[in-house]
């Protein structure tokens, strides 16, 4: 019975970082970076502000940890998987990549981090640079690598992988905005699964090299 009287952060020491990251994600997405206070993150996670500082030096480092937990990890896992998938077609890799990006990020509340960066990057250039390097840059290199692989193997028609990467990313970003109501004046309902199915089928037909 004595353990029940201990504070939450003493009872669940191993869970502290994850609880802090989950609380920070909710507040960053809901309020934005500037308006999120560390004491509010700590309170939502059920710990003291001093405990939060044991794990994260400041709000910038907490934000970076949230991004790495919810986005960068997806990219890293996919990079590792594709590095050894020599027998998988480039078309299948591309479908897997875009589908995973939507299901594990775009369809989740973490997609609000994209909106945060777009809205506040001008005021926080260091965070914008971090996001550009660890998220956008790595994601683009991953997609571009799959496209270049497809061209080299004769699976895709010749094209500029860098330009095509931007072409492929734009519809998924738009779907994210629609799904999470980032457009306050847009009331058109979109079925994300049908959207992705149509989109992926179209790009596979367009990229496929002639037999």
Give the helix proportion (percent range). Answer: over 70%
Low-confidence stretches: 1-9
Task: Summarize model confidence as the mean pLDDT.
Answer: 89
CATH topology of the largest domain: Tetracycline Repressor, domain 2
Strand content: under 5%
Query: So, the CATH homologous superfamily of the largest domain?
Result: Tetracycline Repressor, domain 2
Q: Biggest β-sheet: count, sense, barrel?
A: none
As for the number of domains, it is 2
Oligomer: single chain
Rounded to an integer in angstroms, the radius of gyration calculated over CA atoms is: 20 Å
**Overall body shape:** elongated
Give the strand tally.
0
The number of helical segments is 10
Run of helices and strands: HHHHHHHHHH
- Structural class comes to mainly alpha
The name of the CATH architecture of the largest domain is Orthogonal Bundle
For the termini, the CA-CA separation is 72 Å
| CATH first level of the largest domain | Mainly Alpha
Characterize the structure shown.
It is built from ten helices and no strands. The chain is mainly α and 211 residues long. It folds into two domains: 1-56, Arc Repressor Mutant, subunit A, CATH 1.10.10.60; 63-207, Tetracycline Repressor, domain 2 (Orthogonal Bundle), CATH 1.10.357. Helix 5 (59-83) packs antiparallel against helix 6 (90-106), helix 6 (90-106) runs antiparallel to helix 10 (192-207) and helix 8 (125-152) crosses helix 9 (161-179). The model is unreliable at 1-9 (pLDDT under 50).
């Amino acid at each position: 019975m004595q353990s029940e009287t201990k504070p939450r952060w003493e009872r669940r020491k191993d869970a502290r970082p994850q609880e802090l990251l989950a609380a920070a994600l909710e507040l960053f997405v809901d309020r934005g970076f500037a308006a999120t206070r560390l004491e509010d993150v700590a309170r939502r996670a059920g710990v003291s502000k001093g405990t939060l500082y044991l794990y994260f030096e400041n709000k910038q480092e907490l934000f970076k940890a949230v991004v790495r937990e919810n986005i960068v990890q997806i990219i890293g896992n996919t990079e590792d998987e594709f590095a050894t998938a020599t027998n998988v077609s480039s078309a299948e890799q591309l479908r897997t990549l875009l589908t995973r990006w939507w299901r594990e990020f775009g369809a989740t509340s973490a997609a609000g981090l994209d909106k945060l960066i777009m809205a506040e990057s001008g005021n926080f250039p260091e965070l914008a640079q971090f996001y550009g390097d660890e998220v956008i840059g790595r994601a683009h290199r991953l997609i571009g690598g799959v496209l270049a692989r497809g061209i080299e193997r004769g699976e895709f028609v010749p094209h500029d992988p860098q330009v095509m990467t931007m072409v492929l990313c734009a519809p998924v970003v738009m779907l994210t905005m629609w799904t999470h109501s980032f457009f306050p004046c847009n009331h058109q309902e979109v079925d994300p699964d049908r959207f992705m199915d149509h989109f992926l089928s179209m790009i596979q037909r367009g990229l496929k090299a002639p037999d």
